[in-house]
Amino acid sequence: MRGTGRGLFAVGVALVGLMVLLAVAAPLISRYDPAAQGVGPALAGPSVEHWLGTDRFGRDLAARVLHGGRTTLLATAAALALVVSVGTLVGAAVAAVGSIVDRLARPLFDLLVAFPVMVVALALVGLWGPSLGTALAGVLIVLWAPFARLSRSLVRTALAEPSAVAARALGAGRLRLLRYEVWPRLRGPVLVLAAVEAAQLIGVVAGLSFLGLGAQPPSAEWGAMLQEGRAALWSAPHLVLAPGIAVLVTVLGLTCMAEGLRDMLDRAGQVVPE
Amino acid sequence: MSTPVLSVSGLTVTYGQLPVLDGIDLDLVAGRVHVILGASGSGKSTLLRALIGMVPSPGQVSARRFLLRTAGGEVDLSTPDAWRQVRGRHVGLIAQDPAQALTPLRRAGSLVREADRLTGGTADRGRVAEVLRAAGFTDPRAVASRYCFELSGGMAQRLGVGLAVAPRPAVLLADEPSTALDGLARARLAATLRQVANDGAAVVLVTHDVALAAGLADDVTTLDDGRLHDGRLAEGVPRHQGIRRIAVSVPPPADRDGAAMLSVRGLRKRYRGTGPVLDGVDLDVADGEVVGIAGRSGAGKTTLLRCLVGLERPDGGELRIAGRTPAEAGWRSLRRLVQVVPQDPRASLNPWRTAGDLVADPLDAHRIGTRAQRRARADELLDRVGLAGLEHRRPGQLSTGQCQRVAIARALAVRPRLLVADEPVTALDAPLRQGVLDLLGDVVREHGMAALVISHDLHVLEALCHRIAVLDAGRIVEDLPAAALRDDGTHPLTRALIDCHPTGETHVG
Amino acid sequence: MAVVARGVATAAGLLLVASMLVFALVRAAPGDAVDVEFGESGASALLSPEEEAVARAQRARELGLDRSVPEQYARWLDRVVRLDLGTSFRTGRPVADELGDRVAASAALGGAGFLVALTVAWLIAALSARRPGGLLDHALRVLSLTATAVPTFLLGSLGLRYAAEWFGYPVAGEASWRRLWLPAVVLGVGAMPVVARLLRASLITEYGRPYALAARARGTSTARLTFRHVMRPAFAPLLTLAGLTLSSLVAASVITEVIFSWPGVSEYAVSAISAKDYPVVQAYLLLVVAVVVVVNRTMDVLQHLLDPRVAHAAQVA
After folding, report:
1. What is stated as this protein's family in its record (chain A) (predicted)?
2. Which of A43, A209, C119, C282 is the most core-located residue (most Cβ within 10 A)?
3. How does residue B460 score in pLDDT terms, banded at 50, 70 and 90?
C-alpha cells in the first residue's frame, strides 16, 4: 500500500499553485521591469540586489523568470484546455456513435498517440518558421488524440457498467446517463491524463524554445530565456538554470498531481490511464 | 492419539489492531484428515497461510508453540527463517483454484523438475515422469512439454495435487480444493487425500464442501471469528444452504385469464459469431402472476431479460407489454410499467450517489411528481424495505443485502405493473437470502403486480412463483405450475434441476 | 506465421494513413514547391515579372501541381516509396543519402538510451516491488518523480558542461563510444520513470497471483520466484507500451543530439530547419513516423511470441 495518494496530490497542487501565484503576482514580487536593460551589471551572479543575477543585457533574471511564467503558463493552460475538451468530446462522440465510425477511429487514435509530439512540432516549425504559436500548434495537432482514445474507451466501459445498464432499464435517458454514469467515471482519469500531458506540453515547448525553434527572444518567456542562456552556458550557467528550474518545478508539480490522482483512482477501483 | 506431527498453540495473527486469528490451538496427527469448516471471513485462508509460514507482510504472527516433528528432529517454526527449509518439503499446499495456481508460462515438466530439486530430489527425466504418472497422467512425456496455461482444469488439478504430494510432506494443507471440480474429479481428489493420509501424512482440509468433508474427516473443527471450536459435521454447517422454507405461499391469482401483462411470441436473438441465444421463446405473464424462469447458465436467461426491458433488440418475434408492442408505445413509456431488480446489487448501483438519490432516480428520470414528492416517496420506500434513516448512505457504505434492498425499493418507485428480478439472491450470503426473498414476495403481493423471477436455483423460484418455466438452449422446454413441477416435469433438464435441488427440509413452511 | 503476416498488413495500412497525414501537413505549409525553388535559387531576380510567371507555371506543370490533390498524392507517394525524397537545398545531395549516413548514429544513441532506461527501471521496479509501501519503495518513487520532472535540456546541457569541466568529456567530435555514454544516460533518465512504474505495478500484480503463492508454498526462493516464474509474465504487458517509451525517447533524442552535437538524424533535421531546408524536414518526419509505426507493430508481434497465451486466445476467438 502506498498511502492514499492524497498527500502526493496535495504536494503537486501546492507546487503548481506556487508557480501560478508567482507568475500572477510577478509585479508585486519583483520591482524590476523584465524588459528593462542595464538595471544591473551584465551577467552578474545572484546577489541581494538581483536574486537570480542578471543576463548579458543587464536585465534582472528574477523579474524575467517571474514574468516569463505568465506567458508560459497561460499558453500551456490555453492549449491544454483546447486539447482536453476537443479530445474528450471527439472520443465520447465516437463511442456514442459506435459501429463503423468507432472501428475506423480507433486505429487512427492509436496511430496519433504513437506519434512523437516533439517531432511533429519540429516539422511544423520547419515548414512554417519558428515561433511559440507554431510550436504550440504542432503539439496540439497530435496531443488531442490521447484524450480522444481515453474518453472513447471510458465512455464505452461506463455505458457497459451494470449500474449504467440498470439505470437504462429503469428509464434513464441519455443526459441522465451522461451526468450520473459516464461523467463520474470520466473526470478522474481525464484529469490524470491532463496533468501528464500538461507536463509533456511544457517540456516539449521549453525544449523547442531551448533549440531556438519556439518562443523567440527578447520576450520574457521561459523557453526564450533558455535559448538566450544556452549561448552563455559556459560562462554563466545560471542563465539556463533559472528558467530551467522554473520548468522543473512546474513539471514536478504536475507529475506529482498525476501520480497522486492515479493512486486515488487505483484505490477507488477506477481506470488508471497511462 | 499418537504424538502430533505439527503442534500449534496460541497462534495469533493480527493486521494492525485487528486480530484475524485469535489463539488457535491445533495438533495435527499423522494418518488423519483434519477438516476445518468456516464461513467466508472467518480467517480460514489466514490460518492456512500461517500454517505454511506465508502470512502477507503487514500481518504479525505470534504463537506460544509452533513445532514440527520430522524424521530429522524437531523444528521450531516461530521464526520466518525456519520456514525456508520446511515449505514444500515438509508442509505442502494444494491451492484453491488449480488452473490459477500454476505458473502459466512454464511447461509442466519444468515445474515438476523445479519442485523436485527444491525438495532434494534428483530432478532427472525419470523422476519427472514418475511424479507425473503418480499424479494420474498416462502419458507423462506429452504433459511435461505443455505450457501450464494449456492444461485443462482437470489436468491442472491433477498436476497441482501431484506437485504438492510428490515430496511426501508430513503435513498437507488443502484450501477449498474441490470448488472448481465436478463429481468425478472430486471423488478422485478425495481418494488421493485419503491415500496421502494413509501413507503417513497429516492432512488439513479447509472446505465448505460438506459432502467431501463427510467422506474424509477424522477430526472436525469449526473456525469462527478467528477461534477454533470442536465441531461435528451435522452442526458445523447446515446440510443445505439454500432456502429453509417456502417464503411466500402466494395463492394463484383469482383471475387467471386476466389481461396478459407480458406476452412473448417466438422471440429470437443471436449475437455475431454465436448460435441462436434465444430460439423462439413463448411466454405469458398474467396480471398479478409471478412466473419463474429456471435454466442453467448459458441457457439465454440474461439475454431474454435484456430483450424484455429493451436493452437488446430481438432479431424476431413479438413482444407485448400490457398489450402494446415497444414499437407502438416506445420504450420510454413501457419502462414505467416494467422495472428491474438486477443481478449484482452492488455493481448495479451508482457508487457516487446516495440511497435516497438512487431510489428517487426512476422518478426523476420519468419526471413524476415534484421534487419534494419524489424525495418523500423515496424515504417511504426505503422505510418499507427496512432501510429507514439510511438515505444518505452511498452503496460503498451499505452491505450487499442492503444494496439489494435499495435496488428493490428503486424498482418499486414508479409503481410498475411488472417486476423483473434477475437472480435476486445469488449475490447474497445464505443467511441473507431468506429476508430478501420474503421482502420480494411481500412487495409483489402488496402492489398486486406481476413478476418474472429469473434464477438457476429451483428453491428460489419455488419459494416465490406460481408458475415455473424452464429455459434451455433458447427455448422454453417446460412450463408448469410451481407446485406441479416436481411431479409432472418430464424434460430431462427439468429432472436434472430437480435432482440438483432436492426437497428435504426446504419444505418446512 | 499468421501473426507476423497480420502485423505486416496492419503496419502497411497504418503507414499509408500516416503518409496521408504527412502529405497533408506538407501541402498545408505556406509556399508550394515552386515558391520554394524560385525563392531559394534566386532565379527570380534574373527574370522579368512576366517571364517569371511563365516559368513558374511551366515548373508547376512539371511538378504536377496543376493536377488534382489525390493525383498529386499518388505521385508524391510513388516517389517516397522509391526513396526519392528530393535533394537538400544546402548540400545538393539526395536527402535519402544524407539521412542514411546519420541513421546509424541515431540508432546507436537511441538503443543505448533504451538500454540504460530498461536497466535502471528494472532495478528500481524489482527493489520497490519487494516491499510495496516500504521505505525503499517511497524513496525510489521520489527518485522516479524527480527524473520525470528534470527537463532533458537542463540535464543535458549542465551534464555536458560539468562533464567537460570535470572529466574532460569531448564536447564535439565524431560519434564514438567515448562520447556515447553521457547522452545515453541523459536519454535513459528521461525514459526510465514510465518503464519503472509499469514494471513495478506489473511485478506486484504477478507476485500476488495464486501461481506465485503456490510456487512459494512449494519452497521456491524469492530470487527464483522473481526470475523463473514472475519475470516473463511481468515483462509482457511492457512491450505494448514500448511505443510510448519510443516516442519519449525520440523526443528526448532531438534535444540530446543537438546539445551533444551528436551526428544523428535529429541533429541534422534541426540544423535543416534553421536553414529552411524543406525536403530534409519532410524526409525527417517521414522517417520518424515510419520507425514509430514499424516498432509499434513489431512490439505487438513480439508480444504474441513472448506470451503464447495471447496467440492462444487469438486462435480461440
Report:
1. Belongs to the binding-protein-dependent transport system permease family.
2. A209
3. confident
The reply to whether A44 falls in a domain is no
Cell for B379? 424515504
Across the interface, whether the CB atoms of B342 and A166 are under 8 A apart is answered yes
Would you say residue A153 lies in a domain? yes
Which residue of C17, C251, C273 is in closest CB contact with A125? C273
DSSP string, A3-63: --SHHHHHHHHHHHHHHHHHHHTHHHH--S-TT-TTSS-TT----SSSTT-B-TT--BHHH
C244/C198 Cα distance (integer angstroms): 11
Cα angle value A95/A98/A101 (rounded, 5°): 100
Choose the closest CB to A122 out of C158, C254, C278. Answer: C254
Task: Read off the pTM.
Answer: 0.81
The reply to whether residue B343 touches residue A162, judged by beta carbons under 8 angstroms, is: yes
Q: What is the DSSP letter of B397?
A: G
Best mutation target, C128, C135, C218, to test chain B (most B CBs within 10 A): C218
Residue B52 CA to residue B47 CA, distance in Å, equals 9
Cβ within 8 Å, pair C211-B163:
no
Closest Cβ opposite residue A166 in set B336, B340, B366: B340
- Closest by Cβ to C145, choosing from A114, A141, A255: A255
How far apart, in whole angstroms, are the C-alpha atoms of residue B460 and residue B482? 11
Is C284's CB within 8 Å of A123's CB?
Answer: yes
Selected residue of C6, C152, C154, C261 to mutate for chain A interface (largest A Cβ count, 10 A): C154
Q: What is the CATH number of the domain that holds A245?
A: 1.10.3720
Q: Do B54 and C211 touch (CB under 8 A)?
A: no
Split into its structural domains, chain A has a count of 1
Angle formed by the axes of helices C177-207 and C135-149, nearest 10°: 130
Contacts of B102 in chain C (CB under 8 A): 211, 214
Dist. CA C299–CA C161, nearest whole Å: 37
- What is the per-residue pLDDT across C219-242, written as a single tens digit (0 to 9) for each? 888 888 888 888 888 877 677 667
Residue pLDDT, tens place only, A49-107 = 888 888 888 888 899 999 989 988 999 999 999 999 999 999 999 998 888 898 888 88
B251: DSSP letter: P
Give pLDDT tens digits for C107-133.
999 999 999 998 999 899 989 988 888
On whether residue A62 sits in a domain, the answer given is: yes
Tell me whether residues B411 and A162 touch, CB distance under 8 A: no
Within a domain: residue A95?
Answer: yes
Contact of B489 with B480, CB cutoff 8 Å: yes
Q: Which amino acid is at A185?
A: R
Give residue A217's domain range: 8-27+57-161+188-267
- Cα nearest neighbour of C132 on chain B: B57
Contact criterion met (CB below 8 Å) for B140 and B159: no
User: Which cell numbers hold the place of B145?
Assistant: 512439454
Asked if the Cβ–Cβ distance from B160 to C215 is below 8 Å, we say no
Q: Is A199 on the interface with C (CB under 8 A)?
A: yes
Q: Are strands B202-206 and B171-175 parallel, antiparallel or unpaired?
A: parallel
Report yes or no: B468 and B485 within 8 Å, Cβ to Cβ. Answer: yes
Residues of C in contact with A252 (CB under 8 A): 145-146, 148-149
pLDDT surpasses 50 at C9: yes
Interface predicted TM-score (ipTM) of this complex, two decimals: 0.86
Residues C187 and B151: their CA atoms lie apart, in Å, by: 44
Determine which of B49, B86, B105 to mutate to test the interface with C (most C C-beta atoms within 10 Å).
Answer: B105
The number of C-beta contacts closer than 8 angstroms across A and C is 144
**In degrees, to the nearest 5, what angle opens at C-alpha A258 toward C-alphas A254 and A259?**
115
Checking if the pLDDT of B386 tops 70, the result is: yes
Alpha carbons B351 and B362: distance in angstroms, whole number: 16
